[in-house]
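Hydantoinase/oxoprolinase family protein: structure, please.
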Amino acid sequence: MRSVRIGVDTGGTFTDVVAVDEQTGEILTTKTPSTPANPADGFLAGIAKLSELDGGGGFDVGGIVHGTTVATNQLLEDRISGLGFITTEGFEFILEIARQSVPDGYGNSYFWVKPPRIVPVHHVRTVGGRLNHLGAEVRPFSEEQAVEAARWFRAKGINAIGVCFLHSYANPEHERRMREVLWREHPEAVISLSSDVLREYREYERSVTTLVDAAVKPAMRGYLANLSTRLGRPFSVMKSNGGILSAREVVNQPITTVLSGPAAGALGAALIASTAGHESVITLDGGGTSTDVAVVIDGEPSITTEGTIGRYPCKIPMIDIVTVGAGGGSVAWISPEGTLKVGPRSAGADPGPICYGRGGTEVTVTDAHVFLGRVPPHLLGGEIPLDAGAARAGIEALADKLGLTPERTATGILEISAFNQSNAIRQLTVKRGLDVRDFPLVTFGGSGPLLACRLIDILGLPSVVVPRDPGNVSAFGLLTVDVKNDYVRTYVTRDLSLGKAAEIFDDLEHQAAEALEREGFADPVHIRSADLRYYGQGYEVRVPAPAGEIDAEWRAQVVERFHEAHEKLYGYAYRDDPRHAVEWVNLRVSGVGPITRPALRPLDKPGAGATSVRAVHFDETRDTPIHQRAALGPGATVSGPAVIEEYGSTIPIHPGFTATVDAYGNVEVKRD
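Here you go.
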């Protein structure tokens, strides 16, 4: 019986499963429709299907890693209710005050109306007691008010509660006493403390991050408990920071999973690209509901703590990903002004596009591809037949309303979708000072490769790389990541005390070691970093900090790295200007338990598969060669117009483009 590690990525439309043979490195992949009502059903169906694919002999499973969208979807769909907030007396309006900045697109804040807060003000309770910014007690904690608040929440039936006291990042004592009161007075409460979730200053962001953790904790605990019971074995969960953690640990910090699936895709694509000789790339994960974009530089995806999920800022470390509602299920609709729009609303997996034949009535991006002949009349090798006639009827009805030909309408839907994706890419490149023309695009996911040629033209990309089994790259990425936990402590100073810095790093590394020891790692790796800024600036730049003794040389090295990073980001630095002192803000440690990554094997020779012909519309409708990807060996070239099909995805090659297969089986598309 073969020993395998399994990755399961639950998406909005499909659940992807990948198994890697731990002895031979052989990779098995499959997909099954997602089950939004209970994602655990699709998870288990995918693993059962994988076993059947191997002849039903079964596996000796060495480990299972799961990428989940349970927390993400709850936030994106704004399904938050029954949430309470406890904060310091006098600060009950911290969520209403928020920040003075307004979203892009609102040049004047007069035209912008603040959305409802994550917790309405009538569900906020305050407790007396005060700490200063160094953590020293100014006023004692009020046990009486704490008991009163706990009993009020119990009487109201509010069981998910976030606690964020002023300056608790410097001293968590008052928050811990509040938790003890809640345990005693309101035993059913699910509690999140800001000093556990994010020991970092900035009260508004810390409050919202803590409340997001509390909001998703009940759903995540229920889902993971149900899945663990049905699976009958332990498993790990992908985190937003590019690491994994056991399910039993991640239930205590569910906010760390809010970009679980997209993070795995970026990491898997980074490994595939670097193996093929592309160290710095843009990754694009196109699914049924959304498209996720990330930037990889020197083999590592960019990390941020300034991310948002939906409308909620989340200051946890996460891979810097921009998500747009541009997937295969994105709905085409007509605005009140009579113009064609695409997304962000999606038909999802149920009912899905019109061509699925499951009751969908709205035209989607997938329907446009089917109408134009750019995808086959079935998905997953014939498992999901597509109703091309229904797609045609839907496109024709929409075309009549717009006064356009059906071909023009379908092409317009795809053009809008391509521009939606290109705008997400620009957010991560042009807005961060990167030239998009310097980066190949690695595109994957079921719908990711479908617009490859248009993105090359729109953005001026040098090429697009489509990995083997593109629909399963996120699931594969789950098997390439280490166990990882992040820890942070705010320490704002212009005169860094080496002794204090050493004390903080020692404490953070001790916490990391304890957590990784519970995961079975006796000799973990500790990665240090620090957030610095010029005195007077409002935001910081994070730079890596060396391991080893913390001395004057160590401090100088970190400061020089900050100058270099600031100059790279903003075009200037103040190295030798005493008027602009460097201020230290946060010290960080990432605890890493390294795993053995699967080795990507070169493609030996082409497999089976015949070339056929189908009517496909690009600039005109004509009989077009349809290539089976399995039949394309290393060095094979395909000139457009053509279509390359495989089990999980399709690559339309437009006229004027050529696709080449590299040594590892990746398809690289370039303009002639």
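Notes: The chain has 16 helices and 37 strands.
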